[in-house]
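User: For my dataset I need records formatted as: sequence, then C-alpha cells, nothing else. Please produce one.
Assistant:
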Amino acid sequence: MGALAAEQKNSGELSELVLHRAKNGDSQAFEQLVVLYHTAVYQLLWRMLERSSGQARVEDLVQETFLRVFRSLSRFERGGSAKLSTWILTIATRLALNELRNQKKTVRFEDTTNDLSSGDRPDEAFQKRRVAAAIREAVANLSPEHRAVFVLREYHGLEYAEIAGALQIDLGTVKSRLSRARGALRKSLKEVRHDS
C-alpha cells in the first residue's frame, strides 16, 4: 500500500495530492475519490430512500451525487467549513430530500425471513427481525427533514455543526429534529416490546 493510500485509509479523507489532481481533471484521481466515498454515499441514500424509491433509484442518485461532485469539485476548498466527506454527503442528502419531496409517501414492507443468523434460536431471530423492522419503519416514517438529521448523525457520525451546515439550518433546529426523531424511534421500540 502506498503512502497516499495509507494516509487516506487512516484519515477517511482523500489525500491533499489526490484531491488536487481530481480538482484539475485527473480521471484516476477522481476515480479514487469515488471509490473512497461510494459506500458512505450509497448507505446514506439507501437509509433515506429505501422504502420509497428502491435500489435502482438509489443507484441512480449515487451516480447523480458523483456527477455533481465532479462538476463542482474545482470550487471545493479543503480549508473551508466542511470536510470533503461532509461536502459530498451534503450533496447526497439534498438529492435525497428532493426525491422525497417529489414523491408521495409510500412504505414498502420487506420480507425479512432470510435474515436469520445461523446461531440464533428461532424466537431470538424473530425478535431481532421485529426490532430491526421497527427501527427501519420508524426511520422511514420520519419526515424527510427529520430523517436527514437522524441519518447524518446516527449512521454517518456527523457533528451537529456539520449537519447544520449541510442542511443549511440552525444548530437548534438540528438538535430539535434529532430529539424528535429519537423520540419517534423510542416510541416505536417501546411498542415492539409491549407486543412481545
